[in-house]
C-alpha cells in the first residue's frame, strides 16, 4: 500500500547520535526535517559506547591534538546542557613505569588540562594509593584527572525529542528503501518495518548519517558508489559487580599500549571496556567474543585486589564504530575524527554523507553538517545548539530536583527518585503526574520499573519492545529475569 507524498527540506537517514543531532540542529533553523531509522533510536553504535564525554587522553599519543582540543571544548557545553544524563567524573590512572614514564603522563595531562578552557572540571594531579583502596598493594602511585559520563542511549533519545519539539518528524522502525535523484528533489521511499506499509516523500537534500551502514546505503538505496570506505572496529564491554569504591573511575594501562576503563555503573556495578577488534559483517550482529572477555578480565585482575572470572560478568555489549579508513596498521590507531562528503552534481539534488565521529563531538559534527546544509537554504536560521538544553535538563542541581520530587511525592522511594532524576530530569514531573501512591505506579516489572514509566516511554519516547525499555531507555535489564522480560513483552503486545 502506498500513502501520501509530502515535501521536506531534509531527510536524515540514521537515528544514532549524529543523525538525531543533525535533525535537531536543522529543525531548529526552521528547516522541515524528517528523520528515519530502520530500527529503534540508538540501536547500534550510539548505545554501545564507553559512556564517556571525554577528549580522549590516549589520542594525544597518536598526535590527534585537533581532535582532542575539539572534544575538550565540547565537553563542558554538553555537561551544562544535559546535567541529568551527564555529569563530571574523576579518573584515576595507576602508574605503571615500565609502560609509560611519569614525565610522559604528566606532559599528556598538562596538555589535557590546557588544550581547551575549563570552567566546571578540576585539573589533574598526582595521587598516592593506600591499602584501603581496591587496587593491589604494589600499586602505590598514580594520577587523577577529569572527564565526563554520559548515558549514551538517552542522549540520542533526548536529542530526537528536542528535534521533534523543534518541528522534526521522527520515524523509527522506518527504513529508507529507495531514493531517486531528480533535478531539484529526491524522491524517497520509506518502509514501515512493522506494518510493511510504504510511503513516498520528497526532499531537497538527503543526509546519510547511517553510521556503520553509511557506505552500504550508497549501493543498496542511492544506487551510486560510496565516495570513501569506512573501517569497522568492534568495541566490547562487560558489566561486573562493583569494583569502584566511590564515584571515581579508573583508566588502566596494558602491555599492548591500549587502555581499559573501569567506570561506576548503575550504583551496583562497574563497566569495563573497551576492546578494538577489526570487524566484518552486519554491525547488528556484533557480539563479544570469549577472547575479548578474557582480555578485559586479565587487565582488571592485574590491577584490582578482587579477582574476577567469566562467571562474574553480569552483562556484555558490543558496538561497531565506523572509523575513517586510513593507512593505519591497527584498529586502535584509526582516527576517531569525522568528515563529510557533499555530492552536488550539477543540476541534481544534493547529498551529504557523514563518516566517522565520536559521541563527545556529536553536537559540533551536527552543527558543521547543518552549516553545510544551509548553503542550500539561504533562508535558514543561524547556529543555536551550543547552549541548547536537552529535554529534562532545565534544573539547578540534581540534589535540588530530587528534594523537590521528594516534597511533591513523599511516598516515592529514594532510589526511584535518584534514577528518575538522572534519567528524565524535570520530565519526571510529567511521568508522575496524577500519582499519589506507589500503587498508582501500576504493575512492577523488574527492579524499580513500574507500569507508569513503561507507559511514559511508549507514549513519549518511541519505545516499542522490552529491549527498547530495559536497555536503551533504562538499564533495568540488569535486574530482569527471563520471566520478567516475558511479562513486559506480554504487556507491550497487549497494550500497543
Automatic annotation (TrEMBL):
The protein's required cofactors: FAD
Transferase is among the record's keywords: no
Gene Ontology molecular function terms on file: glycerol-3-phosphate dehydrogenase (quinone) activity
Record EC number: 1.1.5.3
UniProt enzyme class: oxidoreductase
Keywords assigned by UniProt, alphabetized: FAD, Flavoprotein, Oxidoreductase
Domain named Alpha-glycerophosphate oxidase C-terminal: residues: 385-490
A Pfam family per the record: DAO_C
Xref: SUPFAM superfamilies: FAD-linked reductases, C-terminal domain (SSF54373), FAD/NAD(P)-binding domain (SSF51905)
Domain FAD dependent oxidoreductase span(s) in chain numbering: 9-326
Listed PROSITE patterns: FAD_G3PDH_2
Family recorded in the similarity comment: Belongs to the FAD-dependent glycerol-3-phosphate dehydrogenase family.
Protein name: Glycerol-3-phosphate dehydrogenase
Amino acid at each position: 500500500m502506498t500513502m501520501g507524498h509530502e515535501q521536506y527540506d531534509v531527510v536524515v537517514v540514521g537515528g544514532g547520535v549524529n543523525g538525531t543531532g543533525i535533525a535537531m540542529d536543522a529543525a531548529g533553523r526552521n528547516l522541515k526535517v524528517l528523520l528515519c531509522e530502520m530500527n529503534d533510536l540508538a540501536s547500534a553504535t550510539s548505545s554501545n559506547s564507553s559512556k564517556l564525554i571525554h577528549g580522549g587522553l590516549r589520542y594525544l599519543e597518536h598526535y590527534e591534538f585537533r581532535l582532542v582540543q575539539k572534544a575538550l571544548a565540547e565537553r563542558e557545553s554538553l555537561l551544562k546542557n544535559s546535567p541529568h544524563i551527564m555529569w563530571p567524573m574523576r579518573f584515576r590512572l595507576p602508574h605503571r613505569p615500565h609502560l609509560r614514564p611519569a614525565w610522559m603522563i604528566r606532559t599528556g595531562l598538562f596538555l589535557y588540562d590546557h588544550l581547551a578552557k575549563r570552567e566546571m572540571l578540576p585539573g589533574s594531579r598526582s595521587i598516592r594509593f593506600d591499602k584501603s583502596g581496591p587496587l593491589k598493594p604494589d600499586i602505590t602511585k598514580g594520577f587523577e584527572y577529569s572527564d565526563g559520563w554520559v548515558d549514551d542511549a538517552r542522549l540520542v533519545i533526548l536529542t530526537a525529542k528536542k528535534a521533534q519539539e523543534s518541528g522534526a518528524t521522527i520515524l523509527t522502525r522506518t527504513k529508507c528503501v529507495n531514493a531517486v535523484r531528480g533535478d531539484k528533489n529526491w524522491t524517497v521511499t520509506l518502509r514501515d518495518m512493522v506494518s510493511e506499509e510504504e510511503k513516498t516523500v520528497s526532499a531537497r537534500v538527503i543526509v546519510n548519517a547511517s553510521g556503520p551502514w553509511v557506505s552500504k546505503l550508497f549501493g543498496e538505496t542511492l544506487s551510486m558508489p560510496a565516495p570513501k570506505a569506512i573501517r569497522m572496529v568492534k568495541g566490547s564491554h562487560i558489566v561486573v559487580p562493583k569494583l569502584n569504591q566511590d564515584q571515581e573511575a579508573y583508566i588502566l594501562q596494558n602491555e599492548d599500549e591500549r587502555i581499559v576503563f573501569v567506570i561506576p555503573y548503575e550504583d551496583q556495578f562497574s563497566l569495563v571496556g573497551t576492546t578494538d577488534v577489526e570487524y566484518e559483517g552486519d554491525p547488528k550482529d556484533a557480539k563479544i567474543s570469549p577472547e575479548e572477555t578474557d582480555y578485559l578480565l586479565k587487565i582488571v585482575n592485574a590491577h584490582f585486589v578482587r579477582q574476577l572470572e567469566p562467571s562474574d560478568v553480569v552483562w556484555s555489549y558490543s558496538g561497531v564504530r565506523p572509523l575513517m579508513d586510513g593507512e593505519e596498521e591497527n584498529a586502535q590507531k584509526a582516527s576517531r575524527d569525522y568528515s563529510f562528503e557533499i555530492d552536488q552534481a550539477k543540476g541534481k539534488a544534493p547529498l551529504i554523507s557523514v563518516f566517522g565521529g565520536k559521541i563527545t563531538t556529536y553536537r559540533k559534527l551536527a552543527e558543521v553538517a547543518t552549516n553545510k546544509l544551509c548553503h542550500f537554504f539561504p533562508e535558514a536560521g543561524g547556529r543555536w545548539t551550543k547552549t541548547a538544553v536537552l529535554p529534562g535538563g532545565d534544573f539547578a542541581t540534581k540534589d535540588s530536583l530530587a528534594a523537590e520530587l521528594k516534597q511533591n511525592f513523599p511516598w516515592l522511594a529514594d532510589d526511584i527518585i535518584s534514577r528518575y532524576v538522572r534519567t528524565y530530569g524535570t520530565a519526571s514531573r510529567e511521568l508522575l503526574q496524577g500519582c499519589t501512591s506507589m500503587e498508582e505506579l501500576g504493575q512492577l516489572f523488574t527492579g524499580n520499573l513500574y507500569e507508569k514509566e513503561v507507559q511514559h516511554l511508549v507514549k513519549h519516547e518511541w519505545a516499542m519492545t522490552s529491549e527498547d525499555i530495559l536497555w536503551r531507555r533504562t538499564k533495568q535489564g540488569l535486574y530482569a529475569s527471563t520471566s520478567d522480560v516475558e511479562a513486559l513483552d506480554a504487556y507491550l503486545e497487549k497494550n500497543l
